[in-house]
Amino acid sequence: MKKQLLLVFVAGVFLITLACAKSQEDNVLKKGGTPIVKLGQETITSEQLQDELTKLPPNVKAMFAGKDGLKRLVEEIKKREVLYLEAKKVGLDKDPDFVKKMADFRKINLINALIQKNVQTTSIKVTPEDAKKYYDDNQKEFVMPAQVRAVHILVKTEKEAQDIYNKLKKGGDFAATAKSASMDTATAEKGGDLGFFARGQMEPSFDDAVFKLKKGELSSPVKTSFGYHIIKVVDTKEAKTTDFEGVKPMIIQYLTGEKQKKAFDTYYSSVEKNYSVQIDNKAVEDFASKQTALAPAGAPQAPGAGAQDAPKPPAPAENPHK
Questions:
Q1: Helix H segments across the chain?
Q2: Which of 118, 123, 111 is nearest to 270 (CA)?
Q3: Which one of 23, 181, 253, 308 has the largest count of C-beta atoms within 10 Å of its C-beta?
Q4: Where are the alpha helices (DSSP H) in 56-171?
Q5: pLDDT at 50 > cutoff 70
Q6: Cβ–Cβ < 8 Å for 76, 11
Q7: Bridge-partner residues for 155, per DSSP?
Q8: Is residue 281 one of the residues assigned to a domain?
Q9: Which residues contact 32 (CB under 8 A, 6 or more apart)?
Q10: Which of 209, 238, 267 is the last residue of a domain?
Q11: Are residues 231 and 218 in contact, defined by beta-carbon separation less than 8 angstroms?
């Protein structure tokens, strides 16, 4: 059964791959070579078969190796062409949505072809020396700030928070209390665990309280816009600078992207000056205002929502919930 499902899946993937590999012009089958399959007035030839093989990605091509594989290839090409003829027969090629999609597809591919032809990015190189210079000149970007890992219990009233604090000070189980009492459902099942986070990722009052605590210490009730928290620090990390080797690939990728963007911007500027382009800023402002008014109001962030904010490139990202 599993084998049959796999074959069905592979066939489906292959039909999609063949469809993507075909020319976006009308269905014009090559006429050279030996005829293999006749489809009404059309003929699939050995030349077309060879052309289809050339277009296939290596991992897909491997599925059609050998005599049996090539027979399957012919079968799948036959299915594709029959389905194509049927789609035209029922008029799907005239469907307005399809025509628009094809127009959009053509536009995007023409733009990509233009950029590939005129923006030479393959010659852009960033050396390890370039990366090292960027690293030395931008040390602040590679400093991982001091972090704490904290657990918390969130309740509605100060009295509830004070009662919980008193019980925990007498030896109560923090994780069990968080599971049973905390309103922060995202962390309650994890014993209130917020993971690691740095200053500035929580509300100011929460930040002020947690970064005054030492490892193992418990805070008295702390008020935020969400309610009242009891916080305990379970681990800390000192600030450190990531070494160059650890970020070198990321810097090279970033600088390469910057150079490619510069090459594109230079080319675009040379093209745009040949056209009369005007933007009605008032109309843009009106449109933006209407979109803002229609957008649903954002829900308030939970206390730990900022703990996974990614640093700006090319600084290394660190998962705070490791």
A1: 2-21, 46-55, 58-61, 66-89, 96-118, 128-137, 158-169, 174-181, 185-188, 204-210, 244-272, 281-294
A2: 118
A3: 181
A4: 58-61, 66-89, 96-118, 128-137, 158-169
A5: yes
A6: yes
A7: 228
A8: no
A9: 45, 47
A10: 238
A11: yes
Q: How confident is the model at residue 297 (pLDDT cuts 50, 70, 90)?
A: low
Domain carrying residue 179: 146-238
Question: Terminal CA-to-CA distance of the chain, rounded, Å?
Answer: 40
Is 274 part of any domain? no
Q: Is residue 308 part of a domain?
A: no
Phi, psi for 288 (deg, rounded to 5):
-65, -40
| Distance set, CA 91 to CA 32, 95, 288 (Å) | 29, 7, 39
User: How many structural domains does the chain have?
Assistant: 2
Asked if 310 and 200 count as a contact pair (C-beta separation under 8 A), the reply is no
Question: How many Cβ atoms sit within 10 Å of the Cβ of residue 186?
Answer: 12
Q: Give the CATH number for residue 174.
A: 3.10.50.40
Percent of the chain with pLDDT over 70: 81
Domain end call among 175, 206, 238: 238
Q: List all residues 6 or more positions away from 50 whose beta carbon is below 8 Å from its beta carbon.
A: 33
Strand-strand pairing, 227-237 and 222-224? antiparallel
Residue whose pair of structure tokens reads 């009106």 in the numeric block = 286
Q: Hunting for tokens 């020396």 — which residue is that?
A: 129
In a domain, 302, yes or no: no
Sorting pLDDT into bands at 50, 70 and 90, what band is 157? Answer: very high
The residue type of 88 is K
Is the domain of 82 the same as that of 154? no
pLDDT tens digits for range 93-142: 999 999 999 999 999 999 999 999 999 888 899 999 999 999 999 999 99
